[in-house]
Amino acid sequence: MSAQILDGRRVRDSILAGLKPRVDSLAAQGIRPGLAVVLVGDNPASEIYVRAKVKACHELDISSEQLTPAATLTTEELLAIVAGLNARADIDGILVQMPLPPRIDARRILLAIAPHKDVDGFHPYNVGNLVANSDGPRACTPAGILELLKHYRIPLAGKNAVVAGRSDIVGKPMALMLLHENATVTICHSRTRDLAAECRRADVLVAAIGRAALITSDFIRPGATVIDVGMNRLTERAEAERIYARAPEKLRQFDEKGSILLGDVHPLDGREVAGALTPVPGGVGPLTIAMLMSNTVRAAEQRARRHEAAPCSL
Ligand code: NAP
Predict the structure, then answer these.
(1) pLDDT in tens, 96-149
(2) Ligand 1 contact via 52 beta carbon (within 6 Å)
């Protein structure tokens, strides 16, 4: 059996294509969605993510503003930047790129972002809306996964869904979203007694752990849908040899680059046992930025509605 590949790039394109007419309609009302991205200090990985977010804004004709304060910034100074962005009518979404330098109190920063501009969906107010299944911005990665499952018409109601990982940004919101789709949800973590046995019960398995190829064939129920959130860069050849023993072309790729990107799901086992699988790269990754754009457009539409109700407040 060879798993159906769930193509995240295709779903991303379809999400972005759906946003374009909404951006055009806002433009006709004189409103251009605006996203502010705050990147503190120099973190090469964060710089790559931020560049990708700014590029996506550009392609959709969303205005983006990048603020790059030095790592020496204090919590109070960053709070002042956030307050300034909260007050600006032309900014619909505020994204403070994580991780922040350890000297900055990330929790205070998160709480300071106006909930209606929290396009990451991380503010406790928006987490509360998610728990209550009320309207509000949702965390981008799990929201993108839900879009992918819907795009491929993967049934969720009454199904066993297992989420491996309980982070605030992926595992927990994913579990709640699946619950709201009427799946029977199990959440696993590092203290779960028998992770393989729990995962094997899944009709839909979401792996968001951050451990390369941890999910092997004995974790996957034959025919299950497997969503691989993990993004792990493998740099040790011995490890690459172990994982890709049956795929010499992948080992060659590893040798050429000195590293290889892979998910939490063993790439060969996943394809052999799952019924459907997201690849890494090209699965979940592209969806996250598409949902960030979606949250920003949604916030701009709310601005347009506020403007209609009270034209002076724009
Ligand atoms: P995280 O905050 O480090 O959380 C990892 C979770 O996995 C924790 O809940 C941890 O349990 C659990 N875990 C760790 N080792 C485990 C084990 N051996 N058995 C069972 N559970 C285990 O990570 P995250 O931010 O959620 O990210 C997870 C992965 O997804 C990473 O590879 C990250 O790069 C990737 N990611 C990708 C995207 C994307 O757009 N593609 C977005 C976000 C994240 P405890 O809670 O008990 O410690």
Answers:
(1) 999 999 999 999 999 999 999 999 999 999 999 999 999 999 999 999 999 999
(2) no
* Nearest-angstrom CA–CA distance, 204 and 216: 15
Which amino acid appears at position 199 of this protein?
C
Split at pLDDT 50, 70, 90, the class of 90 is very high
Question: Is the beta carbon of 171 within 6 A of some atom in ligand 1?
Answer: yes
- Pairing of the two strands 232-234 and 225-228: unpaired
Tell me what pLDDT residue 229 has.
98
- Residue 36 Cα to chain centre, angstroms: 18
Task: For residue 254, give every residue at least 6 positions away whose Cβ sits within 8 Å of its Cβ, in sequence order, or none.
Answer: 234, 237, 240, 244, 260
Whether ligand 1 lies within 6 angstroms of the CB of 98 is answered as no
Per-residue pLDDT at 314 exceeds 70? no
H helices present in 29-74, as ranges: 44-60
State the catalytic residues.
53, 97, 120
Minimum-distance ligand 1 atom for the alpha carbon of 164? 21
Q: Is 165 in the pocket of ligand 1 (CB under 6 A)?
A: yes
Phi, psi of 67 (to 5 degrees): -115, 130
- Tell me: the pLDDT tens digits for 234-278? 999 999 999 999 999 999 999 999 999 999 999 999 999 999 999
Backbone dihedral region for residue 213 (phi beyond 0: left; psi -120 to 50: alpha; all else: beta): left
Cα of 119 from ligand 1 centre, angstroms: 21
* Closest of 238, 115, 123 to residue 169, by C-alpha: 123
The total number of residues shown for the chain amounts to 314
Note the maximum CA span of the chain.
65
